[in-house]
């Protein structure tokens, strides 16, 4: 893509680049700071001594070769909804209204794995579900199916997490956190039932 925007203006220091070893990152952002494009270039010229602001890897093809890029799209509310990568892969997020302050979202990563996130009216994550992954064969290697994994989170009236449950349909693992009247963490219990206690001195 053609470079558009303002050239760097910081001239307080020099930059030394080394052939096939140095990389330069270029980002294109909106006026509100949303990143639209991120590109990574590798320096392919001879060793050179630059002053910041005197080179532009996005247009100087004789000195830089682009080795990767990410493009990001946003919805009308400024939330990212799609990312496309230089290898052709992509990830996406779908946002929807579910009555909470922050809404819910479903995320599909670059490998097609979908995870659902749900929040309470205070914006706290209350559930996270990674959907089941079917059996797949890649390059002659068969990878077994993976069941869905559901996590739930419970908070006390002060907004502190006190319980987390992981359930894959066969096993259920529970972790807990306990606090004293001052809000200090005094004990944690792991899924195996092991408890760690915390003591506090008086300053």
Account of the 3D structure:
It contains no helices and 17 strands. A hairpin with a 4-residue loop joins β6 (about 80-85) and β7. The chain has about 200 residues and is mainly β. It has a domain at about 10-70. It is extended, with a radius of gyration of 24 Å. Helix content is about 0%, strand content about 50%. It has a 13-stranded antiparallel sheet, with no helix packed on it. A two-stranded antiparallel ribbon has the order 1-4. The protein has strands at about 15, 25-30, 35-45, 50, 65-75, 80-85, 90-95, 105-110, 115-120, 125-130, 135-140, 140-145, 150-155, 160-165, 170-180, 185-190, 195. The mean pLDDT is about 85.
Large-scale geometry = extended
Structural class: mainly beta
Count of individual helical segments:
0
For the terminal residues, how far apart are their CA atoms?
A: 60 Å
- Helicity range of the residues? under 10%
**Order of strands in the sheet with most strands:** 2-3-5-6-7-8-9-10-13-14-15-16-17
Secondary structure tally: strands? 17
Mean pLDDT: 86
What is the H/E order? EEEEEEEEEEEEEEEEE
Strand proportion: over 45%
Major sheet: 13 strands, antiparallel
What are the segments in which pLDDT stays under 50 over at least 5 consecutive residues? none
What Rg is obtained from the alpha carbons, in whole angstroms? 24 Å
Short recap of the structure:
By secondary structure, the chain is mostly beta strands. Helices cover 0% and strands 50% of the residues.
């Amino acid at each position: 893509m053609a470079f558009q925007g303002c050239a760097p203006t910081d001239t307080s220091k020099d930059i030394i680049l080394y052939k096939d070893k140095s990389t330069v990152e270029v980002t294109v952002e909106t006026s509100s700071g949303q990143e639209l494009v991120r590109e990574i270039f590798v320096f392919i010229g001879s060793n050179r001594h630059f002053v910041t602001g005197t080179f532009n890897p996005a247009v100087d093809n004789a000195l830089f070769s682009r080795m990767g890029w990410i493009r990001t799209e946003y919805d009308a509310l400024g939330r990212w909804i799609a990312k496309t990568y230089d290898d052709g892969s992509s990830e996406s997020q779908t946002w929807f209204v579910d009555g909470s302050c922050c809404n819910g979202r479903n995320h599909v990563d670059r490998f097609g794995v979908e995870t659902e996130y749900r929040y309470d009216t205070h914006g706290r994550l209350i559930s996270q579900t990674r959907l089941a992954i079917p059996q797949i064969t890649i390059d002659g290697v068969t990878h077994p199916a993976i069941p869905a994994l559901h996590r739930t989170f419970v908070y006390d009236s002060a907004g502190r997490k006190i319980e987390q449950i992981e359930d894959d349909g066969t096993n259920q693992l529970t972790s807990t956190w306990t606090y004293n009247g001052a809000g200090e963490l005094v004990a944690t219990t792991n899924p195996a039932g092991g408890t760690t206690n915390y003591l506090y001195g008086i300053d």
